Amino acid sequence: MLRRGLLLTAAGVCWLVGAAAGQGATRRLSAAQYVDRMKAGWVGQMCGVGWGGPTEFRVKGAVMPESRLPTWQPRMVNQFGQDDIYVEMTFLRTLETRGWDCTIRQAGIDFANSGYRLWHANNAGRSNLRGGIAPPDSSHPQFNKHADDIDYQIEADYSGLIAPGMPQTVIELGEKFGRLMNYGDGLWAGQFVGACYAEAFFETDMTRIIRAALKVLPPRSQYAEMVRDVLKWHAAEPKDWEKTWQLVEDKYHKDPNYTHGLCSRAGGANAFSIDAKLNGAYILLGLLYGGGQGDQTIKIATRCGQDSDCNPANAGGILFTTIGFEKLPDRFTSAIDPKGKFSHTSYDFPTLIDVCTKLVRQAVQRSGGRIEKDAGGAEVFVIPVVEPKPGNFEPSYDPGPPANSRFTDEEMKQIQAAAARPAGGR
Q1: H/E element holding 154?
Q2: Domains, the chain, ranges and CATH?
Q3: Model pLDDT for residues 235-273, shown as the tens digit of each residue
Q4: pTM higher than 0.85 for the full model?
Q5: How far is residue 163's CA from residue 28's CA, in Å, rounded to a whole number?
């Protein structure tokens, strides 16, 4: 038994272990450290999607030659028109304006009222919502054939960035917002990405971050199997990421038992694939083989191909969170436009940081934590260490029964002129 006051450190952040079995361990994160790392997480997303954007779906079923990557320019950080970033701000706005206790039905109404163009699971889910199919059925495979696509994985970064060290909160946010468009591996993918961010506030070793995030997944899920595979393959080939890429390709792109994302089901080995598992593996390749370097992490996640702007955005965001804004190279931060407005939102970069700072304080207290002041008067978040409890194992290929959920007439009135808005499509 460890006595009160024994401090264990990781990544410069303290763990305080309880004095007795009935008093759980806590993690301590200063408010200043939180803001520094949260800012870096958003910058990592912006850099990843900006750098990889010109290559999106240009290479499928092959490793992208490095010569096809654009040269990084500092101005490329200003990605205010990328759906890879602004869609998740719809969820932040719901939390900001309606509170953490808002229902999934209200979250669905807010998403239905979004005005941006969408694709795949996002588009199918929102179309269901606008047609009166309320969540959770908006993502159920009976109504949404894109349930295992990448969509919530792309936009789950927000969940870990407002829940440092709180994987159960990340799971709950997925159940509220990820359920609007994804089911099974598509949902669990986003919860996993969010959990990687949550752990990145306290840890720098990527294998440890990934193993911690693995705990939010149902162990029998194919997404969890993919994570375990990539960790195993990386351990066997720690220097050659292209060999691991080939193992991923052979199992998660070519084997029909693992290609449940809609667009990966036809067209052969070189087919366009939006499956969450395949693209999630590419995120992990960037993180595990990137050596803790921003350039290399983003390049590898991009060169894996397929959705090669979303994947480096996730990988860059997770890595940059471990580094912190103040320690990022100037080439990634010097050109940020503080007045640039993220499309379809009321947020510029400073406002985004302020909103997350407000929400994290609520998250700490809701998780059973507290906010203290240290000897110098600076605020410190004291966060309980909680073993996450994954959701039920209901994969998209063997789903549970629909909930028969439909919006009421009154709720439909809140979905303003949705039918007149373009639904999008690719």
Answers
A1: helix 151-155
A2: 7-420 (1.10.4080.10)
A3: 999 999 999 999 999 999 999 999 876 555 545 556 889
A4: yes
A5: 13
